[in-house]
């Protein structure tokens, strides 16, 4: 890709005070133009655009940045992996934001490098999604606030965790008697998450969890998908079943299991990872690929909850 000219120049009066600035990395003129247009709409001027070959050579000499935008379309897998790794290192060292736009087939490569709180992965986004992601990264880079949508999803995650905890505790109380002393269990009050051990000793089969997942997917035959969008729980169920099966799940496969657009699923994966319920697992055979699994705490919570539901004679939904 021919190098794009500087969009703003530091010699222009007021440039440094105009707001956060971004470096665009792209091998497609069209993708670079879309990124720069979104940056302008978000009030975040782009310093310049460079191609992946230049970024792979060295991007550490670009100072005064707040954001790095990576447009993965047309990039080779090897260059994409290398550039994302270097961009992630610089972003961590300098507290920068990263927004990476990828194709569906590039999700696993991106997720192998970017799952931190400052990174956002978009898949085939529209202009509104691009601008929203850049605005979120801009505010995070300034240390002012998080994106409203992210705050909303974090609140939904907390409510989900609290609801799971409430139901599990109620079931535990019913199975051991109202007057029984509560027993210790896996719990983390920091995220409102708990998993009482009332399900201990109850065998949970992967086939049971898969049946629940199939039943949830059947709703789409009768109702609009958006009526029941619940990506956090769908992913928890899928990873719980995979854990019981001792099977690894790629990030791209988990996005499919979430039954929502890939960008939404990736945002939720990041949220659940930050909450300590998911963990990234490297693929020893391919460093460009990463798997996602439940953390020990996440798995124990799902096991305890499913056991409590089963012991109470109810059905997991």
TrEMBL record:
InterPro entries registered for this protein in UniProt: HTH_MarR-typ, WH-like_DNA-bd_sf, WH_DNA-bd_sf
An example of a Pfam family matching this protein is HTH_27
Gene Ontology MF annotations: DNA-binding transcription factor activity
Keywords in UniProt for this one? Coiled coil
Boundaries of every HTH marR-type domain copy: 245-298
Q: Which residues form the signal peptide?
A: none
Where are the annotated coiled coils located?
Answer: 150-177
Kindly indicate whether the keyword Coiled coil belongs to this entry.
yes
Please give the name of this protein.
Answer: HTH marR-type domain-containing protein
């Amino acid at each position: 890709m021919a190098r794009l000219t500087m969009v703003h120049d530091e010699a222009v009066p007021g440039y440094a005070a105009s707001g956060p600035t971004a470096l665009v990395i792209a091998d497609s003129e069209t993708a670079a133009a879309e990124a720069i247009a979104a940056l302008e709409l978000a009030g975040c001027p782009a310093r310049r655009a460079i191609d992946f070959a230049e970024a792979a050579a060295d991007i550490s000499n670009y100072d005064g940045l707040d954001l790095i935008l990576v447009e993965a379309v047309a990039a080779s897998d090897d260059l994409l992996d290398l550039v994302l790794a270097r961009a992630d290192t610089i972003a961590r060292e300098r507290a920068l934001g990263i927004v990476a736009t990828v194709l569906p087939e590039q999700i696993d490569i991106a997720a192998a490098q970017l799952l931190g709180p400052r990174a956002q992965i978009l898949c085939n986004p529209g202009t509104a999604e691009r601008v929203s992601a850049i605005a979120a990264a801009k505010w995070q880079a300034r240390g002012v606030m998080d994106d409203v949508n992210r705050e909303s999803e974090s609140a939904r995650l907390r409510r989900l965790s609290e609801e799971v905890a409430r139901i599990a505790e109620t079931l535990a109380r019913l199975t051991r008697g109202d007057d029984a002393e509560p027993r210790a269990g896996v719990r983390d009050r920091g995220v409102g998450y708990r998993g009482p051990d009332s399900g201990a000793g109850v065998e949970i089969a992967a086939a049971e969890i898969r049946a629940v997942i199939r039943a949830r997917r059947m709703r789409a035959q009768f109702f609009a998908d958006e009526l029941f969008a619940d990506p956090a729980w769908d992913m928890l169920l899928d990873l719980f079943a995979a854990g019981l099966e001792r099977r690894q799940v790629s990030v791209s496969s988990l996005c499919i299991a979430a039954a929502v657009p890939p960008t939404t699923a990736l945002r939720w994966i990041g949220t659940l990872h930050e909450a300590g319920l998911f963990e990234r697992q490297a693929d020893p055979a391919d460093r460009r690929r990463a798997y996602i699994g439940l953390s020990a705490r996440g798995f124990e919570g799902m096991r305890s909850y499913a056991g409590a539901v089963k012991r109470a004679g109810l059905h997991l939904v």
